[in-house]
Amino acid sequence: MALDRNKVQQAVEAGNGILKLAPSWVPRSFMIPGRRLKLHPDDIYAYGGSRGGINERWFSSTTKAANGPETSEFEGLSFVVTDSGEQFLLKDAVEVAGDLLLSKEVFDREQGWNILCKFFDNEGPIPHHMHQNDEHASAVGFKGKPEAYYFPPQYNQTFNNFPFTFMGLTPGTTKEQIRECLQKWEQGDNGITFLTSAYRLEPGAGWQINPGILHAPGSLCTYEPQVNSDVFGMFQSEVEGRIVPWELLVKDVPEGKKHDIDYIISMLDWEANVDPNFAANNKVFPIVASTGEGYEEKWIVYGTKFYSAKELTVKPGATVTITDVEAYGLIVVQGYGDFGGTPVSTPSMIRFGDLTEDELFVTAAAAQKGVVIKNPSTTDPLVILKHFGPGNPDAAKLIKEKTGPTSWKK
């Protein structure tokens, strides 16, 4: 049965423009979970051993995970939870009442909530891979995918096995060398990481990774705002002794091109990969957005028109009113308090299927009116990560027109 618009409006009004969301867990069969998402140890393999362990939590998601033939019906999708305990998909709510949630102007422009945000948590590195741009992703019916990384200190008290990320390719690398790596796929390690550099990951900082850039995320728990698409291609055939099947290289390649090495290499943004100033052009450090009595807010993801994110810290004992121009999703990473009349708290441990008080969606109207946030603790700050969709006017001044060889506005 289709969701009724009135039901969405009732939930919005009951929450003063704020919607409570249930946790959305996603497993990956080719990765080893980092076990920092606060999910109970007995629930890491809640989807079954064949699906792999849960190493991702998706926030305010209207995007279903593209996770193989065993993907469950609602995998990756967020549910709104009403005061009565009734649940409905945020995706359905946006479809029938997008103007109520995002504003009429944004919904008319975007036709949806076009952002995917997640925690990504692994024990070790994952394969060197890339996400297709719009041109290549559209060939298989999807959107291209830029993504951003931020490493919240609250979720990185331990760094796990490999807190380094291989990114791009060493300047001077040739396409023929990549061709040779792909031709050696069935020989075990195809050696692609001999052609790249690893950067040590820094809690409290982040990176911008544009489509077509190779990267092998390391073992820090990562907060990742990104375009709402789940396309990728793995270019590394073995990682930590685990074989990566060719199918994960060509998962999002047209049928007639799955063994066309020239086509596969053409999916790479070559200039961006061999950029001699790769770190200077792609590493992101927090920028203070605003401060006031009892709070500080920083931009932690910025530089592109596709998404942005802030970290809000409300000091112990403070009550503040925070305004934003657009709707946003949020995750509470430290402390507890009251967010616009809704209790919020950071869980110590979560059972699979249980609800939490750490995830909300804030409508555009509520954001523009201003949300009163109270931190009753006498010792602990209340820390909240907030992710915004495309075209956030507050972040427009931070868009990088040109950085190195590629534009973040593509």
From TrEMBL:
Name of the molecule in the record: Mannose-6-phosphate isomerase, class I
InterPro entries: RmlC-like_jellyroll, RmlC_Cupin_sf
